[in-house]
Specification:
There is one protein chain. The protein is built from three helices and two strands; from the N terminus they run E-E-H-H-H. It has one domain. Strand 1 and strand 2 form a beta hairpin. A two-stranded antiparallel ribbon has the order 1-2. The protein is elongated. By secondary structure, it is mainly alpha-helical. Helix 1 packs across helix 2 and helix 2 crosses helix 3.
């Protein structure tokens, strides 16, 4: 069944690691741009990054940088994307086992 870490495919771990690092860097850039009054990263982009696996990096950025923690709508969409991401990952991991 390929390379695995328990029931988690190694490729998925790499995807989450890279996506999280990229997301953390983009959140950092957006925070910097906000302070400088420069053009910001669209919220849609931040949500897409969270959806594809960058949500751990987004959570770190939100806590460390205190960025995107006040806007209630942003937070609601963020948690929705996290839930969708987890649902897709669980389906993808367990579907071959016939457990879905």
């Amino acid at each position: 069944m390929g390379h695995q870490l328990g029931w988690i495919p190694v490729g998925l771990v790499y995807l989450y690691g890279v996506a999280s690092l990229v997301t953390l860097l983009i959140y950092s850039w957006d925070k910097y741009a906000a302070k400088k009054g420069w053009q910001r990263v669209p919220e849609r982009t931040l949500h897409l990054l969270a959806l594809i696996g960058g949500w751990p990096g987004a959570l770190l950025a939100q806590q460390w940088l205190r960025h995107k923690t006040v806007k209630k709508r942003f937070r609601m969409v963020f948690w929705f994307t996290l839930g969708v991401n987890w649902a897709l990952v669980l389906w993808w991991v367990f579907e071959p086992l016939g457990l879905n």
